Amino acid sequence: MVSEFMLQQTPVSRVLQPWQQWIERWPTPTALAEAPSGEAVRAWGRLGYPRRALRLHRAATAIRDDHDGHVPDDYAALRALPGVGDYTAAAIASFAFGQRHIVLDTNVRRVQTRIALGVEFPHTSATAAERVLAEDFLPSRAERAAAWAVASMELGALVCTARTPDCDVCPVRTECSWHRAGRPSWDGPPRVGQRYHGTDRQCRGALLSVLRSADAPVAEDELLVAWPDQRQAERARDTLLADGLMIMDADGCSLPR
């Protein structure tokens, strides 16, 4: 569950060390729930999208209070936890409990689109048609379905990659419509990566970095000078407050307690 939260919009290479440190510090949901939520934000470090840390803390609290401290194995119960959407619930149920669920991440979508449709890339976001296709690929037996979920994800991450697919070592290249068609280039809308430098996301990260490294509340003016654009820094401060990622009181600014 921790790895699934951390891996949302974040590559595995960036998650490995924070995940290990997190599990060593909070080996159970109850251990995390009993820590201040601000410590979860602090331990999240530079993984990005720090609201995930708060959601994971809230989920751990719900698991402690409503499930006797054990991560539930039921999809509906998982889906009801704070911060757990369709994909995360399916991934936990499949990877942790060996159940049959459609686990449709970007890598899996790319694999099935190339194999079945002969197209280099899937749509920007998952479609109903892709879910139908994923159901067609999914074995009927739960244990084989869980193995397929892992295998297809690894295939997309390590072999059938977005930029440099290694078709020569692909175990399903003879079944792949895209490979048989000569690997035609993408002719859809331009694929544009997300910009980070100078964005509000980067600004929020700069302010949070100050709070994470502080042992005591930080004066507001000291916090805002962490970013050169005063107006953007104030906007970032306001969104951090609205998201519950920081608090301001008479003592200054700090992570939630």
Question: What would CATH call the class of the largest domain?
Answer: Mainly Alpha
Strand segment count = 2
CATH topology group of the largest domain: Endonuclease III, domain 1
Radius of gyration using CA atoms only: 21 Å
SSE succession: HHHHHHHHHHHHHHEE
Order of neighbouring strands in the sheet with most strands: 1-2
Helical residue percent? 40-55%
CATH homology superfamily of the largest domain: Hypothetical protein, domain 2
- The share of residues in extended strands comes to under 5%
Tally of DSSP helical segments: 14
- Poorly predicted runs of 5 or more residues: none
Can you give the mean pLDDT? Answer: 94
As for the number of domains, it is 3
The appropriate CATH architecture of the largest domain is Orthogonal Bundle
- Report the principal-axis shape: globular
Q: How would you characterize the largest beta sheet? A: 2 strands, antiparallel
**Sheet/helix structural class:** mainly alpha
N-to-C CA distance: 23 Å
Family: Belongs to the Nth/MutY family.
Protein name: Adenine DNA glycosylase
Enzyme class: hydrolase
Pfam families: HHH, HhH-GPD
Essential attributes:
257 residues; mainly alpha; Endonuclease III, domain 1; Endonuclease Iii, domain 2; 3 domains; two-stranded antiparallel ribbon; iron; iron-sulfur; HhH_base_excis_C
Characterize the structure shown.
The chain has 257 residues and is an all-alpha fold. It folds into three domains: 2-97, Endonuclease III, domain 1 (Orthogonal Bundle), CATH 1.10.340; 106-180, Endonuclease Iii, domain 2; 200-254. Helices cover 54% and strands 2% of the residues. It is built from 14 helices and two strands. It has helices spanning 2-6, 12-25, 29-33, 37-44, 51-66, 75-79, 86-97, 106-117, 128-137, 142-158, 177-180, 200-213, 220-224, 230-242; strands spanning 247-249, 252-254. It has a two-stranded antiparallel ribbon. A hairpin with a 2-residue loop joins β1 (247-249) and β2. α4 crosses α5 (51-66), α8 packs across α9 and α12 crosses α14. The protein starts with a helix and ends with a strand. The mean pLDDT is 94. It is an enzyme of class 3 (hydrolase).
